[in-house]
Write a structure and sequence with these properties.
- This protein has 488 residues and is α+β, with helices and mostly antiparallel strands.
- A hairpin with a 2-residue loop joins strand 14 (396-404) and strand 15.
- Helix 9 (204-210) crosses helix 11 (221-231), helix 10 packs across helix 11 (221-231) and helix 12 runs antiparallel to helix 13.
- It has 14 helices and 18 strands.
- The longest helix has 21 residues, at 261-281.
- Helices cover 31% and strands 24% of the residues.
- The two termini are 19 Å apart.
């Protein structure tokens, strides 16, 4: 382990919910829950105000609504979140070439590898500057942990939440870890935690006192050795700059079980095409096609087929998925379907296209996809989702608060305005159109005020047509601003 706290862990505070609060002035300081809004939806992120009521990530949305009935429930806007994430990751990569993203809102950084820090003082300065830069570019807050290992840096960032910085000084690791719950350590989930509890082990100190042999007996060789080392604050894992993708997949959960076999087939074809679009966007192809089916009784089946070589052809993937579906009994109904591609490569094998049957063989990829796609259904009325960006020809930019019974309610406000007025329209009002998100921070003089989140970008990050200018905003977190909170 290192002699200086030069590994940094950044965790953006309630990321999705904080973006929504920054984007919508009327929600700042209020309970916000982001996730799937259907009967089977789950919570993606809850704001700190919603967490007071016991709402947390991965909770069924129905349960969240019972606990916090007055919260704002919004659909995710992933394109916006990804764009802001790229801005943040750009700031991290300016610190070091060794950045290990864990998700859109979380990453490790090796400050020593980039020359950004070499001791406690320089590490603390780098962490404080990073937090200030993130606020300047995005208007959001992030919590920073600094330590001599990845495990301890992550524990430090958790202690820093929300909106703080915690540095664990070398030599104090064992004293800090000792009284903490075993669930604090990586790899100790609910099942392992319960197993240890039944053995009378509740804290990290008790884990260390149990000894390596006892932990191996309880948990197996690999897990037992790893946990004993962590209990002694030993963690030699390096920060890994690139984490190679192992698969690309898409899946949908349906509000009502699908019983019609034809409809199931249509959904599988649609998912296969979405999966191929993701493959191509990443410049990848794959050899193994995977079908996932969760049935009415929650039983989950997976089927796979490995091709002769990698492909990114929609016809090949679609037909392989259809063959896999033939081997699955969907009697009783289907609640979830997914299609994935693994065995990834950065090239395709052209002769695989011959595997696609029918006349699609002779068509270009795009034409084949169009020829086999079902005719789109024309909806009876336009659908508006809670949280969606809209623009009205008279009232300007706003977001959907809710819709139903042929009406849609919109609050007209922007990230830099005061809380706006609410108006209701017919769902088919021609003056109301979907819109791109606006930037979360004010544009500097001379910057483009075009549609979407146009503006300057950081570290070359600019995704999905969205970027954010680097001007210092007021606090938009709903929890107030102020200087960085720093604890030893």
């Amino acid at each position: 382990m290192r002699s200086a706290p030069t590994i940094l862990h950044l965790d953006m505070d309630a990321f999705f919910a904080s973006v929504e609060q920054a984007s919508k002035p009327s929600l700042r300081g209020k309970a916000v829950v982001v996730g799937g809004l259907g009967p089977r939806g789950v919570v993606a992120t809850a704001s700190y105000e919603a967490r007071i009521f016991g709402v947390h990530s991965a909770m069924p949305m129905a349960q969240a609504r019972r606990r916090a009935p007055n919260a704002a429930y919004l659909v995710p806007r992933f394109a916006l979140y990804r764009s802001i994430s790229e801005q943040v990751m750009g700031l991290l990569r300016a610190l070091s070439p060794l950045v290990e993203p864990l998700s859109l809102d979380e990453a490790f950084v090796d400050l020593e590898a980039g020359g950004a820090a070499r001791d406690e003082r320089s590490a603390r300065l780098a962490g404080a500057k990073l937090r200030a830069d993130i606020r300047a570019v995005t208007g959001l807050t992030g919590s920073v942990g600094l330590a001599a290992s990845k495990m301890l840096a992550k524990i430090a960032s958790e202690q820093a939440k929300p909106d703080g910085l915690v540095l664990i000084e070398p030599g104090t690791e064992r004293a800090l870890l000792g009284p903490l719950s075993v669930r604090t350590l990586p790899g100790v989930g609910p099942a392992t935690g319960d197993h240890l509890r039944r053995a009378g082990i509740h804290t990290v100190d008790e884990l260390a006192e149990a000894g390596e042999d006892e932990l191996v007996r309880l948990l197996g060789k690999a897990h037992g050795h790893a946990l004993f080392a962590m209990a002694l604050a030993r963690d030699e894992r390096p920060v890994v700059a690139e984490r190679e993708a192992k698969s690309v997949s898409v899946e949908d959960t349906y509000d009502v079980d699908i019983h019609d076999r034809t409809r199931v087939g249509t959904e599988v074809r649609r998912l296969a095409e979405r999966c191929v679009r993701r493959l191509r966007a990443a410049g990848l192809s794959g050899r193994t096609i995977v079908l996932k089916v969760r049935r009415y009784d929650f039983s989950t089946l997976t089927r796979s087929e490995t091709l002769r070589g990698p492909t990114d052809d929609p016809v090949v993937v679609r037909e392989a998925a259809a063959r896999l579906l033939d081997s699955v009994d969907t009697t009783g109904g289907v609640r979830l379907l997914g299609v994935g591609v693994s065995g990834l490569a950065d090239y395709t094998q052209e002769d695989l296209f011959a595997q696609a049957g029918g006349h699609a063989d002779d068509l270009p990829h795009e034409e084949a996809e169009t020829a086999s796609a079902p005719e789109p259904e024309t909806p009876a009325e336009r659908r508006w989702s809670a949280g969606q960006d809209v623009r009205h020809t008279v009232h300007g930019h706003g977001w959907v608060q809710g819709s139903g019974l042929g009406r849609v309610t919109v609050r007209f406000e922007t990230p830099v305005s005061e809380p706006g007025r609410v108006k209701t329209f017919r769902v088919d009002d021609p003056a109301l159109e979907p819109a791109e998100p606006l930037p979360l921070v004010p544009l500097r003089p001379g910057e483009d005020e075009g549609a979407g989140a146009g503006g300057g970008s950081v570290g070359g990050a600019d995704q999905a047509g969205l970027s954010f200018p680097a001007s210092l905003p007021k606090s938009r977190s709903g929890r107030g601003g102020g200087a960085a909170r720093s604890r030893p």
